[in-house]
Amino acid sequence: MDLRELYDKLKRNKITIDYRGHQFNPITDRLKEAIDHTRRLAMDGNQNISGIAQQILMQDIPYNTPVSYGLYESIKCYCFHCDLEYLLMLTDERHATFIPASDYYQWKKDHPEELPKNNPLLQVQCPMDEICQSGKLTAPINVPTGKLVFANFFGPEEIYIDHEYEYQPGHSINTVSGRHLLMQYLAEKNVGYGQMGNMSVALFVRKDGKEIIVGPCYTADKETSYKGFTRVGELSLEVWRWQCADRYILDQYEEPLRTEDGSKIEHIEIPVRPGQWQIEHRFDLMDYEESRSGEPFSRLTWQGEIPKPAKPVFEPSQKVIDLAEKARKIIKQTDETRCKVHYYQRKILALNRWPNAYAAKSAEPEIILDPEKIHLLGEPDKTRYHELCRKEAERAGLNVSIPGTCPLLEAEEKQRCALHAFGDALLPELPNMKGVTMDIFLDKGIETYKQVTTTFLEFVSWCMNMKKEEQLFNRFRQTMSNYNKKRNLKHS
After folding, report:
1. How confident is the model at residue 28, as a pLDDT?
2. CA angle, corner 177, sides to 299 and 89, nearest 5?
3. CA 194 remoteness from chain centre
4. Backbone dihedral region of 222: left (phi > 0), alpha (psi from -120 to 50 degrees) or beta?
5. For 161-180, what is each residue's pLDDT tens digit?
6. Are the CB atoms for 62 and 114 separated by under 8 Å?
7. Poorest-confidence range of 344-348, 374-378, 457-461?
8. Is 218 helix (H, G, I), strand (E, B) or coil?
9. Which residues pair with 31 in a beta bridge?
């Protein structure tokens, strides 16, 4: 069975595909693109290229091996549930499946033979299948004062997006996985979130203040209503999401509910029962008909009182906290500098296409396109490269303390000094660390040093989160105490 026969049999449902919970664009569309691309290559003027493409079109597709097209490229499919790439593979003449691309390539490094039929890679279920089957994304948040604010979005980046993982596999909010992970990240900060479309939603609160519905404004041309619930307002979702948090939480993140230009962010504050709340968000997993049926898009339900948190085993000094925050800011600045420097370095090399000055004369000229290989440039080319880099750095606004220094090298040195100072301040405060300094870890190698500094930053962050939880619990207790006093006064 060749590529064209595979396409024909898939169109006529003569081959059964085991999707195992994944959701892709129609595989026949992807296969047609692959065949058309291979046909164009088969007519290429270069005989080597056309010969390979013609062979790909005519040869039988082997079983338990990724389906190839073009110049032996694998057909990759992107899952809209888990945000990962998969390879199409025939298991026999009547069945096909998908395997994780990254795992397959890793396995192939040590196994040149074809994939055996009992290999676990052929049985991998979509990581998001269980959540997708449930029909909802869920997360808990704490509402300590009962003043729950809903808005289209909140301004502070920390409670809008997870910058650390924003561009990592599995974290794209175009997929269920990315929305689930962002929901959990924000819930840890006691901020609720539901990804929506370019639309408006209505908010409804139950009379006892223990349940809220986010639903459509209209159903079948009539205002939507739910028995036992009061409609409290509407929100326009220009940023395609809703977010909510207790007023006390927003104050912690200095959220003024205003945009950068000073205009007011549309929001609705709903008085609810203070405590723990559970969010169930269904819009992401609704089909078109269900989303227009009047069914709630999201429900928020009161679960009970906020439990008292455990006492942190260690409380860092204010000096350590300040140095940790300083180190985090410098790490972020270094990452931004790295992106800019790598961009203009590669651009300069791509535009100038300088050759490897040390290549054998009989060999084909090797063009240096990788900044890691600039030591292979001849002296005139290397001098010109550094000159152009300095100009690009100035254009990008990357200032350096010593003229001619690479902005990235200077930024990385600044980061190392900040992490060193933070570690040396933290170590004396930790138990059983007397006499231990960061130099000891540095002597064990750069990888050990990086692991230690990363662990220390995470540890201090964890301690600070424990402290915030304790403050939040105390605020909840204060709210409930005031609430009970007012109730007793009414009855006396």
Report:
1. 92
2. 135
3. 15
4. beta
5. 888 787 788 889 999 999 99
6. yes
7. 457-461
8. strand
9. none
Q: Encoding tokens for residue 172?
A: 């794209």
pLDDT, position 310: 65
Amino acid in the structure at residue 492:
S
pLDDT category at 250 given cuts 50, 70, 90 is very high
pLDDT more than 90, % of the chain: 47
Quick one: residue 2, left, alpha or beta (phi over 0 = left, psi -120 to 50 = alpha)? beta
pLDDT at 491 over 50: no
Which long-range contacts does 85-92 make (Cβ < 8 Å, 24+ apart)? 86/22, 86/24, 88/27, 88/30, 88/31, 89/63, 89/64, 89/65, 89/115, 89/122, 90/1, 90/6, 90/15, 90/61, 90/62, 90/63, 90/64, 90/65, 91/63, 91/64, 91/117, 91/122, 92/63
Q: Give the C-alpha separation, 187 to 194, whole Å.
A: 11
Alpha-carbon distance of 100 to 88, in angstroms, equals: 9
pLDDT at position 483: 56
* Type of residue at 155: G
Q: Residue 154: name the closest of 179, 191, 182, 203 by CA.
A: 191
| Under 8 Å between Cβ of 479 and 145 | yes
Q: Which of 332, 350, 342 is nearest to 408 (CA)?
A: 342
Helices (H) and strands (E) counted in the chain, each on its own, are: 13, 18
- Three-class DSSP category at 215: strand
Query: Which two tokens mark 189?
Result: 């900060």
pLDDT of residue 283: 96
Q: d(Cα 319, Cα 314) in Å, to the nearest integer?
A: 14
Which carries the bigger pLDDT value, residue 306 or residue 150?
Answer: 150
